[in-house]
Inverse folding.
């Protein structure tokens, strides 16, 4: 069960929306399944009208009007100079606490009685009603209006935070508390367990508006931005290189400096370069994905990457200094390609020994592989296609709170090399041979691992996630170019692979990249 929380200041407007047709006419037979004691004594479970929605809103606002209490929250905006959200000094009304509780699309509907019980248990766990409220109860209502657009059964909880004694309910850490409440309810009621919650995963901050703007089945701005950053992270061997490569990809990069100067960088934010007259939309690394926070990236780079060595790059990015013209390209001769094939084979031999039930190891591998596929998507797909979708599916498996992963192959050198080769390719280069060598071996191993994970995973959500990954990788595999006979793709490589004179020298070019070429290549998608 997934809890999605929001705050607002218009109770009547929210109630009218919940009993209305919805954005896609998906709302059917809106009615109450539970609510505070006074509310349920007046209203039944019959379908609600807009007039009744307004009446219910008035009842929910009763304590706020009685005591004259206003609940507000600070208005914030993104500060490009610091890369953080900062208060504007203004405040907005925020007495309405709104939470949807949703089941998976294939979960059987619960019915009004069970939803009513779940709603009561949830608001008590949050401290809004019942004994946990210690006499200071909130007015609240739970509305059921059919399935979501994706087909999942769900309810909406509307809570006015002004309590019966005129105080304001405590909503600190409400996301964490709601997740804990959902976990307890899942166990008590035998509901499908959301694996991501117990493993500490978090979704990207994709809003409804952003999802709608992207279109059905398309990657959102945040997802595309995360893929680019993850590709850069996978290809870079240290922090300074990461900053420089991100800027070469056409991204705006802003460091977050520790208080007191510009000597220590504690985080970062990135944005696609906006169109003329538009405002940049920034995302912090940690919001794009836990594996993309600066602390996680530093762990991945290891001791060979020192933060102080990257200060000049961070400062240049913060000041918006132009990138110097740099020669980037790949000298992919037979020797390089054969060496890469051997590196990947050795990594895959390590991964073949990984216990499929070891979720943390799989998450680590998935994150690294997502970066490789993302890098190849940036260079070979004019718009996000199968590689991008497979990268996104793998990236969602990489979101875990655990920082250190025991038993993980620590040096996935072959994966980093594969990402570096992709990022070095220039527009228009023939990358067919490199694609065959890199992607066929990578995709085969990942499909095998995800299929094995699907067989041993107990939670249905994570099992479906692994199945989606396997399907996405299958589609990638199907569209890869045929392997030249001389490559011997699919055969175990020798420890020292001899050069094959018939292997075509596919990529032996270099390209010049300046500050503007990333946009000119159409990478800002």
């Amino acid at each position: 069960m997934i809890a999605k929380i929001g705050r607002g200041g218009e109770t009547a407007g929210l109630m009218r929306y919940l009993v209305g047709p919805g954005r896609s006419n998906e709302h059917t037979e809106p009615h109450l399944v539970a609510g505070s004691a006074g509310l349920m004594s007046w209203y039944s479970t019959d379908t609600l009208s807009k007039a009744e929605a307004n009446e219910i809103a008035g009842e929910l606002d009763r304590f706020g009007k009685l005591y004259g209490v206003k609940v507000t929250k600070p208005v914030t905006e993104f500060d490009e100079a610091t890369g953080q959200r900062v208060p504007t000094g203004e405040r907005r009304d925020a007495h309405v606490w709104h939470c949807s509780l949703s089941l998976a699309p294939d979960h059987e509907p619960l019915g009004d009685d069970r939803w009513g019980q779940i709603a009561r248990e949830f608001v008590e766990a949050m401290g809004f009603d019942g004994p946990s409220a210690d006499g200071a109860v909130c007015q609240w209502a739970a509305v059921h209006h059919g399935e979501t657009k994706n087909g999942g059964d769900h309810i909406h909880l509307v809570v006015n935070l002004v309590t019966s004694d005129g105080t304001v309910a405590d909503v600190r850490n409400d996301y964490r508390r709601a997740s804990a409440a959902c976990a307890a309810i899942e166990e008590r009621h035998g509901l499908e367990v959301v694996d991501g919650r117990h493993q500490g995963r978090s979704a990207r901050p994709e809003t409804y508006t952003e999802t709608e703007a992207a279109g059905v089945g398309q990657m959102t701005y945040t997802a595309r931005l995360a893929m680019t950053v993850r590709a850069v992270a996978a290809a870079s061997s240290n922090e300074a290189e990461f900053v420089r490569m991100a800027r070469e990809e056409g991204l705006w990069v802003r460091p977050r400096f520790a208080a007191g100067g510009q000597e220590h960088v504690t985080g970062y934010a990135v944005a696609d370069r906006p169109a003329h007259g538009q405002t940049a939309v920034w995302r912090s690394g940690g919001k794009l994905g836990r594996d993309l926070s600066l602390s996680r990236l530093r762990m991945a780079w290891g001791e060979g990457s020192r933060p102080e060595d990257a200060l000049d790059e961070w400062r240049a990015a913060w000041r918006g200094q132009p990138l110097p013209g740099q020669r980037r390209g790949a000298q992919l001769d037979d020797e390089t390609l054969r060496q890469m094939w051997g590196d990947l084979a050795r990594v895959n031999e390590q991964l073949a020994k990984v216990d499929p039930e070891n979720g943390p190891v799989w998450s680590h591998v998935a994150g690294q592989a997502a970066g490789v596929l993302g890098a190849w998507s940036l260079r070979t797909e004019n718009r996000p296609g199968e590689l991008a979708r497979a990268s996104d599916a793998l990236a969602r498996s990489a979101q875990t709170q655990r920082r250190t992963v025991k038993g993980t192959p620590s040096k996935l050198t072959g994966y980093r090399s594969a990402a570096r080769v992709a990022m070095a390719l220039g527009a228009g280069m023939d990358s067919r041979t490199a694609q065959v060598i890199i992607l066929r071996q990578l995709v085969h191993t990942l499909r095998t691992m995800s299929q094995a994970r699907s067989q041993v995973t107990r939670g249905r959500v994570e099992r479906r996630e692994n199945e989606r990954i396997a399907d996405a990788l299958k589609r990638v595999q199907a569209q890869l170019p045929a392997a030249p006979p001389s490559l011997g793709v699919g055969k175990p490589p020798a420890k020292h692979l001899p050069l094959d004179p018939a292997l075509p020298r596919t990529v032996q070019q270099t390209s010049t990249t300046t500050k503007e070429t990333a946009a000119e290549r159409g990478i800002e998608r």
Summary: Residues 208-520 form one domain.
